[in-house]
Specification:
This protein is of the alpha+beta class. The chain has three domains: 93 residues, Ribosomal Protein L25, Chain P (Beta Barrel); 82 residues, Ribosomal protein L25, C-terminal domain (RNA Polymerase Alpha Subunit, Chain A, domain 2), CATH 2.170.120.20; 30 residues. It contains four helices and 13 strands. The strands form three sheets. Strands 1-3-2-6-5-4 form a six-stranded mixed beta barrel. A four-stranded mixed sheet has the order 10-7-9-12, with no helix packed on it. A hairpin with a 6-residue loop joins strand 5 and strand 6.
Length: 227
């Protein structure tokens, strides 16, 4: 299961676009905490610290121990609004989580034992249909990744969701059996047609012979004329 990260936050009194813009100019990011049958709370976070966690790629799959003016809150980011050009974070929605909180969440897929996979050793290609999968689990026990073992996978094998052993308490949100990856045949290297190549060589040889014969015939005619 993924480890937690910590952030410091302060409650903000003002709301609206003007207040949000002022916070961003100061290097802060406005956010909101909701859920757990409590009133939403508007907060602001340090923009640099928040960006670091976002760039690590775990913001939506890792619980945050939020220090809100000295009071601890367990929260999970559920949405982030990004600037359309600069791509920096403009706003974050955080969900309060407890031991009872179960949520759907996208978790990355991780392939293991690729170096011993028979299909890949024979030149096969790993064709990935899904780089992440949506699972339903406890918000406090979100798996870092769903591991798929390739140790016994052969060329033409298809890895379905039904063949994956999930951690306890974790289930796929999709009911049907779906494809995650497969081992495809290696792409054949282009090979020149030997018959065509031989034909071209033969044609070239015949052409050379014809030219030589023509030159010989011309020489013979010249000799006859001289006689």
């Amino acid at each position: 299961m993924s480890t937690r990260y910590t952030l410091k936050a302060s409650e903000r009194k003002g709301t609206g676009k003007g207040t949000a813009r002022a916070l961003r100019r100061e290097g802060s990011v406005p956010a909101v905490i909701y859920g757990d049958n409590k009133e939403p709370v508007t907060i602001c976070l340090d923009g640099n610290e928040l960006t670091k966690e976002y760039m690590r790629g775990h913001l939506f799959t890792t619980v945050c121990e939020l220090d809100l003016d000295g009071k601890k809150e367990l929260v999970l980011a559920r949405d982030a609004q990004l600037h359309p050009v600069k791509d920096n974070i403009l706003h974050v929605d955080y969900l309060r989580v407890t031991k009872k909180t179960r949520i759907p969440v996208n978790v990355p897929v991780r392939f293991v034992n690729e170096e011993t996979c028979p299909g890949l050793s024979d030149g096969g290609i790993l064709a990935v249909a899904r780089y992440d999968v949506e699972v339903y689990c406890s918000a406090l026990e979100i798996p870092e990744a769903i591991e798929i073992d390739l140790a016994e996978t052969q060329i033409h094998d298809t890895i379905k969701s039904s063949s994956i052993k999930l951690p306890s308490g974790v289930s796929f949100t999709i009911d049907r059996d779906f494809t995650i990856a497969s081992i495809a045949e290696p792409k054949a290297a282009p090979v020149e047609d030997e018959e065509v190549a031989e034909g071209e060589e033969g044609g070239a040889a015949e052409g050379e012979a014809s030219d030589e014969a023509a030159e010989g015939g011309d020489a013979a005619e010249e000799e006859k004329t001289e006689e």
